Amino acid sequence: MRHCLKIVLLCLSVVPMLSAAREIALTFDDAPTPDSAMMTGVERTHKIISALQQAKVSDALFFVKADYIDQQTAARLKQYTDAGFHLASHSFTHQSANQLGANAYAIDAYKAHLALKPFKGVLGFHRFPYLHYGKDLTDINQLQAVLAELGYKDGYVTVDNFDWYISTLITQAAEEKKSIDYDKARDFYVNSLYESIEFYDSIAKKTLHRSPRHVLLLHENDAAALFVGDLIQHLRNRGWKIISPQRAYKDAIAKEFPQVAFHKQGRVAAIAHSKGVPESELRHPSENENYIKQAFTAAGIVEAK
Ligand SMILES: [Zn+2]
């Protein structure tokens, strides 16, 4: 009997370990994005804030493309921080550091740094447009040093995906006045993103032998405005916990900057690559415009009028 009790107690102590929620933070690039055929920028910001608030997500990080800032869009950024969310730098003109070169990119990043100075709620994180960290390791390390001097840590992602392209296809359909099946569009967005999350988590488990605190790459786009609440619900239904970006960036992988030139599929993929996993295994098939376009068409989301 006593033996049985011991076994039961042992099982109970193991349960929390097995059921520990995997954790993921939400980040939105390119804010404050311009008006689209589907909604104004002001509406987009309202929708994203209200979806996050309804889902009781207490923090999210908006990476700002600083040359989008004007009087009206500054008010949108302030709405995010007033709601308790945070801002970070996504450069000034959103160019590829690989093409621009380290010196010109550093100047651009500095302009963004100045443009963000008047805002409250800015965290010292910088994210490279296109996740292009520099054309080679020399440039990459030079830029990391420059950004560190300006007070920025690397605003890496762990889950890359093509949410921006899904959003483009939906908005294009609206522009062309085609009828959109929003239920199908929602399922397509949610399932595509969820697949990417599981894909990079499985790479992490193989490479790090654990699930790190993830950072999901999203954009401040129409698809997020429409469906981010559904995505959050889907994640929670499958045992994921939405955490703050600040908590995510405290994971041990934040201190592990892999000495490879391959960063464009995110931090987990870069670490895996530094341990010998070929690049071809570190990119989900849906990170491809043709693949998404075909799947999007096949899903019957858009009907020509
Ligand atoms: Zn961007």
Structural write-up:
It is a single chain. This protein is an alpha/beta fold and about 300 residues long. It has one domain: TIM Barrel. Helices cover about 50% and strands about 15% of the residues. It contains 12 helices and 9 strands. The strands form 2 sheets. Strands 1, 2, 3, 4, 5, 7 and 8 form a 7-stranded parallel sheet that branches. α5 runs parallel beside α6, α7 runs antiparallel to α8 and α8 runs parallel beside α11. The longest helix is centred in the middle third of the chain and has 26 residues. About 5% of the residues have low confidence. The site of zinc ion has 5 residues, from β1.
Secondary structure elements and their pairing?
Blueprint: H1 2-18, E1 22-31, H2 41-54, E2 61-64, H3 71-82, E3 86-89, H4 97-100, H5 102-116, E4 122-126, H6 137-149, E5 153-154, H7 163-175, E6 179-180, H8 182-207, E7 214-219, H9 222-237, E8 240-243, H10 245-248, H11 267-274, H12 289-298, E9 302-303
Parallel strand pairs: 1-2, 1-7, 1-8, 2-3, 3-4, 4-5
Antiparallel strand pairs: 6-9
Helix pairs in contact: 2-3, 2-9, 5-6, 7-8, 8-9, 8-11
Bound molecules: zinc ion.
Residues 29-30, 90, 94, 129 line the site of zinc ion (ZN).
